[in-house]
Each structure stands twice: as C-alpha cells, then as structure tokens.
Fold this sequence. Notes:
By secondary structure, the protein is an alpha/beta fold. The protein has one domain: TIM Barrel. It is 42% helix and 15% strand. The protein has helices at 17-31, 49-56, 82-87, 98-104, 108-119, 133-137, 141-152, 182-200, 202-206, 218-225, 242-251; strands spanning 6-10, 39-43, 61-65, 92-95, 124-129, 165-168, 209-213, 232-235. The protein has an eight-stranded parallel barrel, surrounded by six helices. Helix 1 packs parallel to helix 2 (49-56) and helix 1 (17-31) crosses helix 11 (242-251). It starts with 5 loop residues before the first strand and ends with a helix. The structure holds 2-phosphoglycolic acid (PGA). 2-phosphoglycolic acid (PGA) binds next to strand 8.
Amino acid sequence: MARRTIVAGNWKLNKTTDETRQLVRELRNKLAGLDSAALVVVCPPMTSLETAVDAASETGIAVGAQNVHWESSGAFTGEVSREMLEAIGVEYVLIGHSERRTLFGETDGDVNLKLLSVLRGALTPIVCLGEVLEQREAGETEAVVRGQVRAALADVAPDHVPRLVVAYEPVWAIGTGKTATSEMANDVHRLIRGTIADMFGGAAADGVSILYGGSVKPENADSLMAESDIDGVLVGGASLEAESFAAIVRAAP
Length: 253
Ligand code: PGA
C-alpha cells in the first residue's frame, strides 16, 4: 500500500478563534493551485477546532486535534472524546505528544488506550514518540523507541494498521532549533518501521506513514522528506505562520 505524505502543523497553545480563521485563510491562499500529493493537516487548540473545520472546508486542508480521551463520555473533567471530535468534522488527532507525556504525565499505557479508542472510530491517529536527550546520550534511543512503539501499538487489530500514522519526534529537537540530521532521523524511522514489521508483518509496516518532528523549517524540510522512510513532517513553531508552513508543504515530494 502506498504511504501517504503528510505535512501536519501542531499549533500547541496558540491562536484564538479569530487568529485561527485568519491563518487558515492565509494558508488556503498560499496553497491554492499547488499540485502536491501531500495531505495538509492543521492541529489548533480545542477551542479553535470548529472554526478551523469551517475555514478549511473545500480547501483540501484537514483539521486535527492535539489530544483525545479514550472514554466516550462520563466523569472526566476537562477531557473530550473521539466522538465529540468526529461530530465537528475533525479528521486527525495527535496522541502521546512529548509535551503531553512530560508536562502532563501521559504514559505509554494512556497512549495505547487513546489509540485503541480512536481506531474504533473514524479519526486518523498520529502517534507521537521519541527519546529524550539523556536517553540518546546514553545510547538508549533504539531500546526506548522500540519500547514506545510496542507499548503504543499493543493490541491494535491488524486491519487497523493501514490507518496508523506515527510521528518520530526526538524530544531534544522539539522547539530547540536542534534538528536530527536527515540520516539520523531516517535510521530511527527504519527502526520504527522494523518494529511495526515485527508486530504486524512487513507489508503492513510498509504502508504506515512515519513523520519526523522537531524544529522542522522550510530550510530542512526537503532534505528530511527526501529520505526513504520519512513520509512527512509534524511542525510546531514553523506552522504558526502561513508563509513558513506553506513553504514546508511545497517542499513535500
Ligand atoms: P517544533 O515542534 O517544530 O516547534 O520543534 C514540533 C512538535 O512539537 O510537534
């Protein structure tokens, strides 16, 4: 199965509804007429999702949430469910972003519960993982990443694997201006694909899009996406301006 090229913007805790409408409009104008196979996704904060869906309608730009809870409803103050996201036209959701893990205590077990819940519905999950600096320096990247993949994807039904998107984001490269070199990132992408192949078979693993994230900019996007196993990018800071995000979309093969 052909892998999808995806360029996703993670807006994090940025943009009011007015700013969201404005940014989506600017993006639409900058991307109009672009002949690209890349799927473009923006992930604004929860309060801006509906505005983004509205502003992006008929533009080819899809909208993703930054988080989701695994329960459908109930006494879970502050959470939203996949059903709620689906009902307003959201199509993607980030799961297990490193900021959720490190700042909000999300565990591999939580990531797995969220993924299994999302796969019961219609959203496309983007499962984020990656090592922290101490782990890389201690030579633990391979073990950490393998463990994160195995834990996140535990009990996924084989027929759901084609819907998976994984984002490798070395935590030391997020928001720091430090990017993994393209080769360094591609090595980890191959390791992730190999781990998925061990779990679900090589053909299934071949169909999974694996994105790179961590200080992606217009200047490094094309060399990253030129690598054999880098199927797109997850962009934080550079997704907050239409010009830089559009330049990254244009860099997609
Ligand atoms: P950054 O963030 O591009 O600002 O490094 C990436 C991310 O956290 O998804």
